[in-house]
Amino acid sequence: MDSSEAAKARTATPAAGHLYAWGFAGMEKDRVLPVASAAVDTAGHCCYPAPLHFSKPAGSSVAAATGRHTIPLFVSVSADVNTVAAVDVDGRLWAWTGGGGSSLPSYPMPHDAAGAPVKLAAAGNGFVVYVTSSPAPPSSATGVRGGGVGGGGDAVFVLGNAPSGHSASAATAARGSTNAAHPSLLSLGVYPQGVRQVAAAHRSLLFLLHDGSVWSWAESILVSGTGRVTAVPPAATTYGVSPAAVDPVRLESPTEVEFIAVGARQAAAITTAGDLFTWGDGLSGNTGLGARIACLHPTTVPRLITPAEGGPNLAPPPRPVYVACTRGQDGCKRIDPVKAFHPDWFDAATGTATVPTAKIAAGQEGPRCHVVCADGSLWIAGTTHKGLAADHLNKVMQPEADCLQFYRVGGRAVDAGVSNPVWTGAAEDLRPSDSHRGDASPSASAEALSHGLTNDVIARRLGMTSVDQFGRGGSTGYLSSTRVVASIPGHIHSVALSDDGRLFGWGCGSDGRLGLKAFMRGPGGSKRTMKCYVSTPSLVEALEHRRVLDVALGRYATFAIVAAA
């Protein structure tokens, strides 16, 4: 996750644990999984959670650099595409990337933050943003941001390839703040108010100050939230790169923010009043505004209610406390967001563009937005491709079924009543029947029973109290008895973390990125190497009796901090 603010109970005293990972560990696809070779099969897949390997690789000086901290304990982890950032109990930042073209190391290495403990960190594509305390006043007033001059506050840095469209060295030269020891280190200034949260993805970053103000530094005009567009972006660019700003820009709206999120194609914020704002590329419905709309300005999302919950006796809607946007999605085949600026769709006066569904390519991945409310419910807006919205019982979905408004996971299934069901994930252990079309009770299949999987075990792996909740009355029942505290949408897989430390995954399990045993099933126990899409949020079985403290998603991998047994 991009901030320890995800669960306030963990903010005061962060718990520490070992860093695990699973997914693609081969030499292609921007490898970021330094796990033991015994955990990787011949296809380069690490199919089950494995502890990260911090021992000395051939020809390096990692052992000398890490000393006694060969196997550190971590308190937070963040990832995006092929880049990972983790903070250990000593406040050291470990950052690495599996892709070329970045100045970050290709193997987990502790970054020297000049002796200052790192408080917060978030990974983007090829860079990491982190925060340290700044007890002494800066050498010049120009280094102070956010108003006021004086000692103390928090300093914000970017390590790696700066997301401003030019090199860190050029940016630091323009700002007049260079770091000879770390030429790839860029200072974004000192903020006397203190930094509450940082968020990064793709080539953009946001950070939230304790005074509730949000600051943006982004390449994408869709993600920046400033709405400062002077011309239609050139057709050659995918994300709409705006002229690089030397300094972060404070968003005029929203104000009094308590939580932020940024993805490759959109951003979001929650205010202290409980209002949810989204902006960016919402052409898959992922801004939750009821249409395929791209917004250059933060826009208030309607109350989080599903159509079936309407009526005169409607209870107050749940209060959003956490939001996350799709990570690891540096490209999207559904539609190029720059096309939203077509004169037929773009309204320069409002800074919005609405695109018809017919322009969305079928059968392709797309962005989503996940919101967790104070009651522990999980809401998703955006693409339903292969079950990514957790609103289907079966493998059937097209762009027409995208969630243009936020859908409450566990609610009515979009495909309720479909015959010949193809259940996925943990639901595969239930006896095939038509129970999801009525009120008949499903039960464990003969194969599941032979492996000791009772109804109670399957229900727990579905996040339910009883398997009777699965499909009853046309509802999915997914996570219906689970209090979610955080949930992250990745490029083509998603995870949710419960308050008791259980980790659930769904979406594409190819390369083993979900860590589910379902990926290993099939004829003769072989892997489902083609797609292995999981429509059902399913417990990661290998961690069933361990407590997961934090989780992060790259494009082809998942990372989790797991408490010691």
Could you explain the architecture of this structure?
The structure is a single chain. The chain is mainly beta and 565 residues long. It has a single domain (4-562), classed as Regulator of chromosome condensation 1/beta-lactamase-inhibitor protein II (Methylamine Dehydrogenase, Chain H). Helix content is 6%, strand content 31%. The chain contains six helices and 30 strands. The chain has helices at 8-12, 62-66, 168-175, 221-224, 446-450, 455-461; strands at residues 18-24, 45-51, 74-80, 83-88, 93-97, 109-111, 118-123, 127-133, 154-160, 185-191, 195-201, 204-209, 214-218, 249-250, 257-262, 266-271, 276-282, 293-300, 320-325, 346-347, 352-354, 368-373, 378-382, 403-408, 484-489, 493-498, 503-508, 533-539, 548-553, 557-562. A six-stranded antiparallel β-sheet has the order 15-16-17-18-21-20. Strands 2-1-30-29 form a four-stranded antiparallel β-sheet, with no helix packed on it. It is globular and about 65 Å long.
What structural category arises from helix and sheet content?
mainly beta
Q: What percent of residues are in strands?
A: 25-35%
Q: What is the total domain count?
A: 1
Number of helices: 6
CATH architect. name: 7 Propeller
Q: What is the assigned CATH homologous superfamily?
A: Regulator of chromosome condensation 1/beta-lactamase-inhibitor protein II
